[in-house]
Design a protein that fits this description.
This protein is of the alpha/beta class. It has 13 helices and 12 strands.
Length: 482
């Protein structure tokens, strides 16, 4: 049996299961679960993999919504991982041309992690079916990664040994085109809570008896603003105030501000973070308050591997971009006009493989995996070129045929790439050789503190508020793979 026939087997499987793949994507879209609270999403994915005879381990590394599903035995060991969390205030009706809530001010998908999950599970099942059909040796390990938007889970997986036996890893993520890259793609980041503690007092009667924790937050903000003049152009620092006090006539005794510090490399992120800690300590001194810093997440920059990029690109050339209709192009152009982007519509070509890539400011917690083992990234076209993620336009296409067609293509590329790596040992060896050159001189060590436990209650209260009303929009149909 030729390799091309095995790939065609997986392509046929995906063609026959387009309805199930779309149902997975749309189900997770309507679940709209924030990071660490993806119970419906992770449960659906685990159930589907369990039904396909994967050995499913739930709750790995202390994450209730994390999992590892394993199929096969022996070498090579191929890890496939992605995320499925949504964002706050991103509840957006798909298929419309205006900002329209599904549930007012609720969480939702305006980036497309719902599509990521559909490609993950469909590509994995297609590859497993081929392994069974053609008696292929090797192991695939499917990782569900909670809380990507907060940059949380995958550094814990690496720290706890889940990737110690992995030869190569693959990550899938939607975008506006079909393409892959190699080189540094994302930045390192350290995300931390700064909690200030003071003393309450009546703000109009005896303010001199109070020690204002909110003043400390404000002064930290001012200090960071002054520090920005001295930051390197590629460094970043941004924050939200999570606790600012209770009422104006009571001086706040407890406040909390959440900062994220970014840089192109791990050392740079630590420098910005350490300066942030100094500024927080200075703010506490000026206000006679106390400060406690808690690292919430910390990730290395994302690096994608040249050897794997070559394999992925070869399969993208085989699969090709979706055949878009005029209606789909027109929808995309309307959305592009809304944001002032050039109304090009949808892209019909596979992006050329150019590298090394230009590193960007965003971060992704898969970065830690990419310094542990060679990692390739499959970018598939389930969103509109030019839209901004975490903006209503980023959710406008996510249950339309645009999202579905892009996911079908992404799943085919993923399955075909897995088959290449299972059947051609030289490809795995090339990935490892190029990886050794790429990380030469760098020793990976997790940035998360030793012994730290994951923040499993993050976003729980928000989901408890919104989930009952969101549940009314869940799909009643369950995906079934034939």
């Amino acid at each position: 049996m030729t390799k091309s026939s095995m790939k065609q087997f997986t392509f046929n499987f995906i063609d026959q299961n387009e309805k199930a793949i779309a149902c997975v994507s749309d189900s997770i879209f309507y679940f709209g679960e924030l990071g660490m609270q993806e119970h419906e999403s992770a449960g659906l994915l685990c159930d589907l993999l369990d039904a396909e005879n994967f050995r499913v381990e739930r709750g790995i590394s202390g994450f209730p919504t994390g999992f590892c599903a394993t199929y096969g035995t022996g070498s090579p060991v191929i890890a496939i991982h992605t995320e499925y969390d949504a964002n706050p205030n991103n509840s957006q009706v798909s298929g419309v041309f205006e900002p329209t809530h599904i549930t007012p001010f609720a969480p939702g998908h305006c980036e497309g992690h719902n599509c990521n999950a559909a490609v993950l599970v469909a590509g994995a099942i297609a590859a497993a079916r081929a392994m069974s059909e053609y008696n292929l040796p090797g192991t695939i390990k499917i990782f569900g990664a909670p809380g990507e938007e907060q940059l949380i889970s995958r550094p814990y997986y690496v720290r706890d040994g889940w990737f110690d036996d992995v030869d190569v890893a693959l990550h899938d993520h939607l975008g506006g085109d079909l393409g892959t890259v190699y080189g540094l793609t994302h930045s390192a980041a350290i995300s931390a809570y700064f909690r200030f503690f003071g003393q309450t007092s009546h703000a109009s009667v005896t303010p001199w008896n109070g020690r204002d924790a909110l003043d400390a937050v404000v002064l930290m903000d001012m200090g960071m603003a002054q520090f920005r003049e001295h930051m390197k152009p590629e460094w970043r620092a941004h924050r939200v105030i999570k606790e600012g006090g209770d009422q104006p006539n009571t001086i706040p005794a407890k406040t909390m501000v959440w900062w994220t510090f970014r840089a192109p490399d791990a050392e740079g992120a630590k420098i910005v973070f350490e300066q942030g800690k100094k500024i927080a300590e200075g703010a506490a001194m000026m206000t006679n308050t106390e400060v406690r810093c808690e690292i919430m997440s910390a990730v290395w920059p994302v690096r994608t591997n040249q050897g794997l990029a070559e394999v992925i690109k070869s399969n993208m050339d085989i699969v090709g971009a979706p055949d878009w209709t005029k209606k789909e192009h027109d929808f995309a152009r309307t959305i592009q006009k809304k944001i002032g982007a050039e109304p090009l519509g949808l892209l019909n070509e596979v992006r050329p493989l150019n590298g090394p890539s230009k590193q960007r400011a965003p971060s992704n917690d898969c970065g830690d995996i990419s310094w542990k083992v060679p990692m390739g990234r499959i970018g598939f076209p389930s969103n509109i070129p030019g839209v901004a993620f975490h903006h209503w336009t980023g959710g406008a296409a996510l249950t339309t045929s645009i999202a579905h067609k892009g996911a079908f293509v992404g799943a085919k590329v993923l399955a075909a790439t897995v088959l290449d790596l299972l059947t051609v040992p030289e490809l795995v060896e090339r990935a490892k050789a190029t990886f050794a050159d790429e990380i030469a001189g760098v020793e990976y060590q997790p940035l998360i503190p030793e012994g730290q436990e994951p923040p499993i209650d993050l976003n729980r209260e928000t989901m408890e508020v919104f989930r009952p009303s969101m549940r009314a929009h869940y799909l009643t149909e369950r995906p079934v793979f034939m």
